[in-house]
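re: that complex we talked abt at group meeting.

here r the seqs, copy pasted straight from the sheet so there may be weird spacing, ignore it
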Amino acid sequence: MKKQLPPSERLYPMPCVLVAAGTPADAAVMAVAWINVVSSTPPTVAMGIRRSRATLECIRERREFTVNIATTSMATEVDFCGIISGRTLDKAALAGFTFSRGNATRAPILDQCPYSLECRVTNELEVGDYVVVFGEIIATHADEAVLTADGKMVDVDKLDPLVYIAGQREYRKLGEKVSDAFSVGKQLLPPKE
Amino acid sequence: MKKQLPPSERLYPMPCVLVAAGTPADAAVMAVAWINVVSSTPPTVAMGIRRSRATLECIRERREFTVNIATTSMATEVDFCGIISGRTLDKAALAGFTFSRGNATRAPILDQCPYSLECRVTNELEVGDYVVVFGEIIATHADEAVLTADGKMVDVDKLDPLVYIAGQREYRKLGEKVSDAFSVGKQLLPPKE
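got the structure back, here u go
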């Protein structure tokens, strides 16, 4: 039996990344769950950010930012960055974060995160109190420790990314494998004539 | 030691939902991993869809669609909808899907999914070979079996949503709880003077 609930901004699950902007010496950082890839030509992310955010100002000014995947061991720091405004406290210092300069942009890469994307702003769109920022992914950086044996891509179990659950407001780990994509569905294909 | 990889459209993790459009009697359905909330005022989702998709045509024509969260038990059906084009086969029939008419829109709600959002298209933006479709969430429907005891929100363990891992192309389950959000980070606040 289906029940109708009030319309709500809940989709399951969401990532929970740290977005950084500014310079390595003076970086603004915020936690973002409303983010995903939207294109591969060119590789592009889009994220919804509350208009009042200090980090948004910084992104608009410099037109560059980084997306840094946090591990589950960083849940406390990520949550702190989601609770506190950078206008009142030095979030990055209190969280123990340090930054390096990107190769392809001048945006600050968060050293403590094992996987980072350097992005250049390509567009933005206002939706109510939020701004959807589009960023082309210019470069990708990964700790060798989170790569597959051939070094070609991320091994998600080594990465151990933080997962956000809206509504019940929890951080989760990733769970077990269900099946291979672009594979398991073939069994539903009708027999060839 | 960080290694630079080619820029790639990989963020971890992604949801994997079924988007439906058209009418309950003639529904187009596709698997979408590039989707997330982008605003709560009003509640709005954005998703990147390859321009050639049959379901996109249907969304553009009717200006309405539903987002249906698939459970991990539906991985085969979701994968099938991600592999096959609705231009060549009746995907929904082969996957055993049935649809009901929405309350707030005329878009088809996928009966087999325990959580669905009815959306009205508010905007779209082209990014390379992809179209980013923005949809305002007009109504939310959930099976009573996936709600918390008070019936007010989704219990994500009961929902058991499918998770998509880009790159290694796997479907995953959600894992264990790490900590409460908007809570655990408070321990990093400096002591009040």
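couple things i noticed - Helices of chain A lie at 54-62, 75-83, 91-95, 156-159. The two ends of chain A are 40 Å apart (CA to CA).
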